[in-house]
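S2.1 Query sequence (Glycosyltransferase family 2 protein)
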Amino acid sequence: MVDLSIIIVNYKTPRLILDCLASVRAYTEGITFEVIVVDNQSEDDSRTVVLAQYPEVRWFDMGYNAGFARANNHGIRQAQGRNILLLNSDTLLIDNLLARCVRVLDEQPDVAAVGALQLGRDRQLRPNLYTTFGQIRRAFYILPAGERFQNLLQRLIPDTQYADPNQVDWLSGAFLMTRPTTIAKAGALDESFFMYGEDVEWGYRLGKQGRILLLQDAQFIHLEYGSSDDNQQHVVTHINRFKPQIQVSQLLWVRKQYGVGAYLVLMLHYLLMVPIVYGWKIAVNLRDRRPLFSDLANQRAFARQAGIFLRFFWKTLFNRPGFYKV
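Output structure tokens follow.
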């Protein structure tokens, strides 16, 4: 049995996979590993390009764009390693991180999953990465900027406190190593999620099986958004912080983990915010002596997002199995 099965989900990113695997080959030593690529109907030359350079890769085609959870679960079912790593195609190793994480799982049986800090293209630590459930939930609420409101949210939605500085609530699916035995107990990724949020929800179930560690002295490069052009085009504003798909998935996570009440509170918040953001902007226009309904693109975008959330309302409210794809 190999020490590690590396699972990479592909959607039109063959060149990124080549770079990723080159870094795996360059830096990994002391362990045996296999690479499994699961393709989400790329309909390009991905398979030919990757297998030409890495013929040992085990390639599987989903036959449709199955998203992150379903594709990774398919890879997990094919895996032959005694440890499993979910690894994004747009990642690069910079040292022997894989062997170190395998060692952590081998030497600390109470650890359910392990990951590392993410660096950007410039090799600087990526800022504002969430590690607790509380951080994510607080980010969903659109409140005026200022310490008073943030402190209020912090009291209402506190963070989990751990004695170990490496322990966190969840790990990003860009780099998450665990064991097949742990997955068997926790369950696989929830296949109702298309993209985003599935790793957060999985972290909750993995955390019931043991500690989740984010090694504070270990790093990998996450280029980010290798297979998504619209991510790079998304303009982040105070009221439009997330793409619709991210928010639909995270609302599903809130419903699953925190129940109907928490979900309804968040939905009510968004619906009430629609007239508030319009009214605020109109008041600003009036103050500045501009046409009342000028420069409302940001507000319209927010209203459209709220409309998308409503499309999934009943399905999410009753936690119906399905495919929550925008």
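The chain has two domains: 4-131+168-229, 231-317. The chain is about 45% helix and 15% strand.
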